[in-house]
Amino acid sequence: MSETASRSSAPHSTRRERIEAILRRELSPTTLEIQDDSARHAHHAGAKALGGGGETHFNVAITSARFDGLNRVARHRLVNALLAEEFSSGLHALSLVVHGEKNP
Question: What's the domain of life for this entry (predicted)?
Answer without folding.
Answer: Bacteria
